[in-house]
Amino acid sequence: MPSFSIPFKIFFFLLFFASSHAFSSKTIPSREAEALLKWKASLPSNTQTLLSSLWGGRDHCNWTGITCNNAGSVTNMTLREFELKLSGVILSLTML
């Protein structure tokens, strides 16, 4: 009688690896979007209002002034032309 034990274990290992990779790759961008929003909340209210009008939608990589790499990590933030009073540190942005 043939043993299916080894191929069965390999199948589940590959399935687990693929699913854990898919979930982990989605968490970095969501953490970075959360970091941007927390940073925005720490700014003066008039600056928060302006950023709210610029940063609409769920995908932070499409927000005005935000540039991301293919993985969804923020690589550049350019808000100079809006003459905002910006301060603070965003430690959760790993690629910035």
From TrEMBL:
Species annotation: Gossypium hirsutum
Gene: LOC107915279
Keywords: Leucine-rich repeat, Repeat, Signal
Signal peptide from the UniProt entry: 1-22
Superkingdom of the organism of origin: Eukaryota
Protein name: LRR receptor-like serine/threonine-protein kinase FLS2
Lineage: Eukaryota, Viridiplantae, Streptophyta, Embryophyta, Tracheophyta
Pfam families with a match to the protein in the record: LRRNT_2
Chain ranges of the Leucine-rich repeat-containing N-terminal plant-type domain: 30-69
